[in-house]
Amino acid sequence: MPRKTVAIRGLDTELYHEVFSMAKKDGKRVSEVMNRALEAYLNGDYKPEASSKGGGKNTGSFTLKNDGEITLAKADILSLKKEVGKFRIETSGRLIFEKDLDRAALNNIEKIVVHDGTVEVPRGLYPQLLLKADIFGKIEKY
Questions:
Q1: For 20-63, what is each residue's pLDDT tens digit?
Q2: In terms of Cα–Cα distance, which of 44, 92, 94, 97 is closest to 74?
Q3: Would you say 78 and 124 are in contact if contact means Cβ atoms under 8 Å apart?
Q4: Which residues contact 54 (CB under 8 A, 6 or more apart)?
């Protein structure tokens, strides 16, 4: 099939960058991933999930988006987990994890995408954070 450029108006660019990053890690092209997703949708394999906005638990994946500055303590992460289940974080700002954070609390976060921003993490959790992160910005350990 000949290659043709397709522009998609309204596509979430942050979502696209995340798919691009994941595809690259898997040694695939974004076009392969998109073609498989579109085929699955056409074949009826698509199952709509509940909206991730609003309170309470849901079957969708909640994403905490940060373009400013957020400081998260262990209690904050556990409280978010209780409200929305495991969640993701996308940051283009400054994200600071407090020193009381431990591995168990960090495991409540599915993925951390650092677009342009800076993430500060306690030195002891630096390796665990790297395993959960797609990094386009900066990670600092303290």
A1: 888 888 888 888 888 888 887 787 766 555 444 444 444 458 99
A2: 97
A3: no
A4: none
Distance between CA atoms of residues 112 and 130, nearest Å: 9
Domain residue ranges of the chain, discontinuous segments joined by +: 1-47, 62-141
CA distance linking residue 20 with residue 105, whole number of Å: 28
Q: Which string of b and e fits 31-44 if b means at least 16 CB within 10 Å?
A: eeeeeeeeeeeeee
Give the total residue count for the chain.
142
**pTM value?**
0.59
Q: Is the dihedral of CA 15, 18, 22, 27 positive or negative?
A: positive
Please give the C-alpha separations between residue 63 and each of 1, 40, 51, 85, 90, in angstroms, as whole numbers. 36, 24, 11, 11, 7
